[in-house]
Amino acid sequence: MHAQPSSTPSFPVVFVEGPATLPHAAGVRAIVLPPEALERYRAKFGVTYPIASPEIAFDPTRQRALIHYSSGWQGGSLLAERKDGSWTIKVLSAWIT
Prior knowledge:
The chain is mainly β. The chain has two domains: 11-50, no CATH class; 54-97. Helix content is 11%, strand content 45%. It is built from one helix and seven strands; from the N terminus they run ββαβββββ. The protein has one helix spanning 35-45, and strands spanning 13-17, 29-33, 51-52, 55-58, 64-70, 74-83, 86-96. A four-stranded antiparallel sheet has the order 4-5-6-7, with no helix packed on it. A hairpin with a 5-residue loop joins β4 (55-58) and β5 (64-70). The chain is elongated and about 45 Å long.
């Protein structure tokens, strides 16, 4: 017996707007749509609020980064710091409309 396809994925799907190359994260599927493809997607499937490619600014040592993100209806700012080979994330601000 074969499993039937499901209309809902068994793992999270993230839509990203813009030209982006994303590292693979286990258990997450990222679908990157350039602006032209996003307009065609919206015309076919309706309202979609993808995450825009985040703005990232590193300090000169590349050990800290300020990240601004938005998905059109929510967003915020994060501070990423690298210590002992690992990155930690601190939420600086968040908004929702």
